[in-house]
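Hi there, hope your week has been kind to you so far. Thanks so much in advance, here it is.
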Amino acid sequence: MSAQDIKEVVKEKYGQAALRAAAGGSSCCGSAPSSEGCCDPITSSLYDGSQTGQVPKEAVLASLGCGNPTALARLIPGETVLDLGSGGGIDVLLSARRVGPSGKAYGLDMTDEMLALARENQKKAGIENAEFLKGEIENIPLPDNSVDVIISNCVVNLSGDKDRVMRESFRVLKPGGRFAVSDVVVKGDVPDEVRQSVLLWIGCIAGALRNDEYASKLAQAGFEDIAVEPTRVYDVEDARQFLAGQGFDVDALAPQVAGKFMSAFIRARKPQACCGPSCCGEAARQ
């Protein structure tokens, strides 16, 4: 399965999710609690009422994340924030409120339907210090050293070229800038048939890195102060849910997968002082 194949499948799935959310339906399952029929334990119950009340319901319905980076990331008024794979815009709009009028929140997405939904949600929320950009997280359309904080919510694992994502993140961050994302990671090994499933890839499972691989890729890109902090470990019943309907022998596979996948908050920092060409983004462009 090539990186381009993955990209096309992801684009199609998230385009469909945006259209469902725009029509008032769950993106299956967005942030709807499991009691409302959510089919995916990874994306359920991520935001509390104090946050969902700040944004249009369509932004909540379109959330397909695995965590809540806006609650975990330290954002300061006046900072510039970039959300990789911003979807319906919930994390961008929440971040824009936190950095205030003197700050800026960018959302980056490659899906036209999600961008249209996010811009409509921004209009409904009346938030002026946000901007949604079309592009790919492997080729961020922003200048070197222009962003204080990068956030993302279960999107880096969808990329077929994660090393490129890390290098591009490093390039656009200012010296001292922070990488603070929620993502799905793996502890240990999982069966090959799970890794090779396209449907599980777009469900944030097959493309997940091991926690040590994630840290290693960040270090290779130039980051320091790297930490991978689990926020939720998926048990055997969770495993049954995300394996169901994918053509697997669920009873046989679920025990092998249980406890190995987890949502995590990944932190890293770009060094404060420029120590070579990579600090200025040259290495990321090669």
Q: What stands out?
A: The two ends are 24 Å apart (CA to CA).
